[in-house]
Amino acid sequence: MAISLSCSVVSRISISSTYSFMKANELGYSSVLLKSVNPFRLNCLSTLTTSAAACHSRKLFNVRATVLQENEDKVIVEESFNPKSFPEKEGKGSSGEPPDDPSSSGLEKLIIKFEQSINIFLTDSVIKILDTLYHDRDYARFFVLETIARVPYFAFMSVLHMYESFGWWRRADYLKVHFAESWNEMHHLLIMEELGGNAWWFDRFLAQHVAIFYYFMTAFMYALSPRMAYHFSECVETHAFETYDKFIKTQGEELKKLPAPTIAVKYYTEGDLYLFDEFQTARLPNSRRPKIENLYDVFMNIRDDEAEHCKTMKACQTHGSIRSPHSYPEDARDDDSGCIVPEADCEGIVDCIKKSVKDSGAKKK
After folding, report:
1. Per the record, which residues fall in region Disordered (predicted)?
2. Do residues 348 and 225 touch, judged by C-beta distance below 8 A?
């Protein structure tokens, strides 16, 4: 009897929802207007455009964040790209889509492979130069790395602001996440300066002039193909992670005897940590709170930061997949009906040209 009553109630709710949706369409209201009550969520029962895959992706996000929270002492770069390996190793690249994705055309796979090959060459070239100049000067190397590492986020925000000014599209979440990433890298840089990494004029001269060139190169790359720019940043962040990880393993005992820089203690443990949570898009806010007792802890957290940057850059290579960790309402985290509405726009110049060609071909047919 209870089962029959429950089925009856669910049936009536479904019929009522369907009738309301049909009635709204008869009166001329659009589906966008129906969703205006809450712009961040979409009711899967009242729309025909949101697929089950979108809901499933939200479930995966929640599960993954929970796993990271339970194992926060051990941060690794999951499925990150190794700059010295070919992008299609073991059937998985670092691009937004796997090479064997049936939805990718043969031309698109070639474009992805070409973009990643260029990034591999550029990354390996820079690594060889740094190995030659800084093989025995760790803090100076870290200063140069951190000066360069924050530049792409400036470039990304510049291009996004340009798109916003032209009225092409708006991505507030991307701007928030990239600013938080630049804020994190800036504090890495301040830590290295406090440790004396910028003591020699040559290191400052090299880092600053490379950063200027890198900014314009990344801005052009991002306007041409955001996927390529994000992949290149992933390569750089992966190298940074590996560099700090190697340094910790070789100098760990000495680092435990040294005090932590003041700026590191303030950044990781004091004040408002909103921006600290913001760049870690694979985690829930407040799920990571570092403890800083010595210099070893500082470098451990810097390394873990680089791992989080790698995850964010990898996710960014899938168009429209990034949202601010603070954009989800608290009640939406446990609500499976909350789905993300994908944006319908082109990514960059290459993507816009490709979609224009497809649209013109479809019209001719």
Report:
1. 84-104
2. yes
- Asked if 192 and 142 touch (Cβ cutoff 8 Å), the reply is yes
Average model confidence (pLDDT) across the chain: 74
Helix (H) or strand (E) holding 224: helix 201-224
Query: Strand, helix or coil at 128?
Result: helix
User: What number of other Cβ atoms are within 10 A of residue 113's Cβ?
Assistant: 16
Q: How far is it, in rounded angstroms, from Cα 345 to Cα 20?
A: 30
Q: Give the residue with greater pLDDT, 354 vs 100.
A: 354
Within 10 angstroms of residue 349's Cβ, the number of other Cβ atoms is 13
What is the rounded CA–CA span in Å between residue 48 and residue 50?
Answer: 6
Task: Measure Cα distances from 101 to 108, 225, 230, 314 in Å.
Answer: 11, 19, 19, 16
Say if pTM beats, i.e. exceeds, 0.90: no
Chain center to CA of 49: 26
Nearest to 61 by CA among 227, 344, 287, 231: 287
Nearest residue to 348 (alpha-carbon basis) of 235, 227, 231: 227
Phi then psi for 325, rounded to 5 degrees? -60, -25
Contact assessment for residue 312 and residue 180, using Cβ atoms and an 8 Å cutoff: no
User: Taking Cα atoms as reference points, which of 322, 263, 271, 318 lies closest to residue 292?
Assistant: 263
State pLDDT tens for residues 129-155.
999 999 889 999 999 999 998 999 999
Structure tokens at 280: 């870690």
pLDDT digits (tens, 9 = 90+) for 223-274: 999 999 999 999 999 999 999 999 999 999 999 999 999 999 999 999 889 9
- Which are the contacts of 256, defined by CB distance < 8 A and separation ≥ 6? 294, 295, 296
From the number of C-beta atoms within 10 Å of its C-beta (0-12, 13-18, 19+), residue 43 rates as middle
First and final C-alpha spacing in the chain: 57
> What is the identity of the amino acid at 188?
H
DSSP states of 46-75 as a string?
A: S-SSS-HHHHHHHHHHHHHHHHHHHTTTS-
